[in-house]
Amino acid sequence: MLGYYDLEGDPIVDPLRSFHTSGVQNTWEYCFLIKNDDPSKYYVDLMIQLILKRYEDVGEYGSTGWSVKFIPGVRQPTEVEWAAISPGEAVPLGDVGTVDAGDTSTSIPVWVRVSAPFNAPAQIRDNQVIRLYYLEKNVI
Fold first, then answer.
1. Rounded CA gap, 114 and 69, in Å?
2. What pLDDT digit, counting tens, does each position of 110-128 carry?
3. CB contact at 8 A, 75 and 26
4. How far apart are CA 71 and CA 131, in angstroms?
5. Rounded distance between C-alpha atoms, residue 104 and residue 36, angstroms
6. Helix (H, G, I), strand (E, B) or coil at 74
């Protein structure tokens, strides 16, 4: 099964849990890992996307001013790279494992950038969730 992990390899429940200081730096970036923990499975066509449960956040920054973007890779993305991604855009991540072996040692690093509106109050944003799309297959 695919799971989310921090950079130390510890499981995490919510990679979107961001921290912002009102009126100062309102962009938060974090790298997390996606990893397979089942050697009998492999995964193809992985894609990550932000899903919104309510419509007020639809569109770039929506009516709330919040934005979430994903970029895969080890290196922290530059401002130019972040600017090339639209908020909520589905991002391909590749495959984990093959028909011959379920890869449980390789992790896919994914950077997330959460931008909050100026002076946003502290809150838990239960409107946004990460959705991983993939095809799960059995190792032969």
1. 7
2. 999 988 887 777 777 777 8
3. no
4. 14
5. 5
6. coil
